[in-house]
Amino acid sequence: MNIDKLTKEYLHSVEIEWSKLRLGIAEDSKSISLEKVFVGLNATQTILIPPLDNRDELVETTERHKLENSYFLKRNSNPEKPNKQDFPVQLSALTAVKENQHLVFLGEPGSGKSTLLKFIGLCFAKQEACWPEKFLHMNENRVPIFLRLSDFSKQIERLETPSFLYEYLTNAVTNKIQNPSNAREMIKKWSDPHNNRLLILLDGLDESKERALVIEKVREFANSTIGQNSRIIITTRLAGYGTLSDSRQSEKAQSFKEFTLQPLKDHEINNYVTGWFCELHSNWSVAKTTDETEKLTKRLESQPGLKHLCTNPLFLSMFIQTSQFADFAKNRAELYDSFVKNQWERAKEQGVAHDLKHIIDELEALAWHIHAGGDSSESNLFANTILKHPPGLSDNLGISQDCISIARKNMGLLANVQGHLSFIHTRLHCKKDAIKLIQIALSSVSEKFNIIRAHQ
Length: 456
Hints:
48% of the residues lie in helices and 11% in strands. It has 22 helices and 11 strands. A 7-stranded mixed sheet has the order 4-3-9-5-8-7-6, sandwiched between helices. A two-stranded antiparallel ribbon has the order 1-2. The N and C termini lie far apart (67 Å).
């Protein structure tokens, strides 16, 4: 058996798979080049992890650090003169990969977590083209293995630690080379403690049904001999994450460093739009691509609320794809409507079998409740509280724990912010306007188009 030859075949297989970014959920959806549209994201390193119940599930940005109720300032003895170490360290996400053996990327839905993970894997798959040095400034010949933790958690209870992840890695390689015996020998070679080449990419910790168990077993694997010599990168949403850091681990064990992906900046938006236009309209000249990019970015500048949503890569990609057609996505409500539908498809992939209309009705009532000044603490909402509600919904509408769980953990629409529920794509300085647009958009999902027309 020629392991080096099999390794090249495996890397070629994953290169083909990861080099394309599918535009839709369907298998036959159009694909574009990941290399052409990828934009390096920035991330902030988490300095202090508060207990899970107290963690703020919205991304910490420079703007939010200035607010008095930010826990980064609250924990400082003198909020008037915060210390530098009280604020997250910001750096390129790719630099974080280079500098940390084990790390976690956290982010809001659509912040680019999975795409980042695939691009990192693609860099190592294209070793012969020197991509690790070109994009990551790393001189390592790692072999990337990508695992979706939502699939993995279905098997976790029957697998022992630390062999459970080793077995799952073998299954992932078998799917590519169609030979279980060869796959086992390849994993054995790649995980040799004297020449460990494994790069383990674990996507979607938040989508794991047995999240606490998955966290514990991943942590144990990371502290094993194989795990300590492997690079391990995990992605997850903020909601319900907790932490992979373990204060009880030995000094020799690798600690998971945690980084939160940041919204796109102006120059990143411009580069992102240019890359997408080059891929979607390959017949355009350079001059036309530049002109169309300028038109779209000016359009965003003229609509601050829309631009704010488009600092999220998923929102921006949806806006780019629809901006050329009729008046679709001309306002934030329609763009949010598309996002909700996209997240519902993701939730169904995770096995959610609830009625979408019932969930949307409850969320619409919650948006009105918050907009009208109602108490949005979870303890209040679950205490049989009747929500302030919009016209057309039941006078006795409350909100269920199932709805909160689906909207927060499966769809990524809600976050726990200092004990209160908030819609995840609002920001504190424009909260009331954002809540109103969410209510309008949710009405659209429920096919109540009259409310949208009344506010246009």
